[in-house]
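2024-03-11 09:14:02 DEBUG pipeline.ingest accepted 1 chain
2024-03-11 09:14:02 DEBUG pipeline.ingest length=119
2024-03-11 09:14:03 DEBUG pipeline.predict start
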Amino acid sequence: MKTMTCKQLYGPCDALIHGETPEEMMENSKKHAMEMIAKGDELHIDAMNTIIRNGENGFLFNNEEEYIKIIKLLKKDKKLRESISNLALKEAYKRYQINKIAKEYLKIYKKLLFVPKQP
């Protein structure tokens, strides 16, 4: 079993994430982040807020009632829906261009697969 910290997987804390495979590690990392956000953990919420700017390129919500209000608002307001969609897409392109993240993903996968560093 492999163990890495949340920070090693580009999260904000030192919690240990365990898994047998790279896929399991990534899934457990995602679960950890979701659990911490649900608990109201400020580090994880702040990390999420750097990606999602509430009402600008996405929405953050605390419960099902807030979620339903957002869905109804987006259903009713085509201009807002398109604006959110366009800004979210622009943010995704900016953050996740393959040439920017490929090296970082490779580092993570090497750690997960126990691949020794090459000279």
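2024-03-11 09:14:41 DEBUG pipeline.report The chain has two domains: 1-51, 55-119.
2024-03-11 09:14:41 DEBUG pipeline.predict end
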